[in-house]
Amino acid sequence: MSSCIKSVILFCAILSLLSCKSQTVTTIDKKEVLVNDTTFVNLKDYSKDFVYDMKYATSDNFLKAKVYDCAECFLRLKTVKAMIEANSQFMKKGYKIKIFDCYRPLDIQKRMWKIVPNPSYVADPIKGSIHNRGGAVDITLVDFSGKALDMGTSFDFFGIEASHNYQNRTKEIKSNRQLLKTIMVENGFNSFDSEWWHYNLKSALNDAVSNAKWKCD
Questions:
Q1: What is the pTM of this model?
Q2: Confidence of residue 35 (pLDDT cuts 50, 70, 90)
């Protein structure tokens, strides 16, 4: 075999290897693009350090009705990342985040509105809420034994006593609410003045309302 033919064969082999490598990188890149910061993911797949009490998957809520088919906490990936960072800070202080509600598909919002068609309690589905955008969480704090910190009212209590601005509270309650608010705000969330449990991820406020649903086992 002449040296010229050998050179051609070697060159073709190199081109083939480079082509395979390029295809492999392209495949990986496509997979990475699929899971971007606005993709809906299950929080449980990213952390085992949260406590769950998904109220709307039960009738133990102000609606007195179960509106979710099953209890799951889906959020956009960027919200999950912020939640994990916040929870890691709480855990250093001996607490964990307990979750009452996460992403809420628009169909569920419509179901809630049908039960309580009052914008003082339920966001009008025509406009949608930050829950429908995957950027809102309803939460509290518990210690490592599961005991909840005293926040002064129950979740979804709609009186003035649930407001961050309400001052007729004990020093302990004020301290607990402030701890929750401080660390959540440090991790990119806004508090909702009238509801001590509600937090919105600032970078998710302009995301689209969604009706994406998860499968129940």
A1: 0.83
A2: confident
Structure tokens at 7: 């050179």
Q: Render pLDDT for 61-108 as a digit per residue (tens, 0 to 9).
A: 999 999 999 999 999 999 999 999 999 999 999 999 999 999 999 999
Rounded CA gap, 93 and 111, in Å? 38
Structure tokens at 111: 């179901």
pLDDT at residue number 114: 97
Mean confidence (pLDDT) of the chain:
88
**Cβ 131 vs Cβ 103: under 8 Å:** yes
Secondary structure, 3-state, the chain? CCHHHHHHHHHHHHHHHHHHHHHHHHHHHHHHHHCCCCCEEEHHHCCCCCEECCHHHCCCCCCCCCCCCCCCCEEEHHHHHHHHHHHHHHHHCCEEEEEEECCCCHHHHHHHHHHCCCCCCCCCCCCCCHHHHCCEEEEEEEECCCCECCCCCCCCCCCHHHCCCCCCCCHHHHHHHHHHHHHHHHCCEEEECCEEEEEEEHHHCCCCCCCCCCCCC
The answer to whether 93 and 84 have CB atoms below 8 angstroms apart is: no
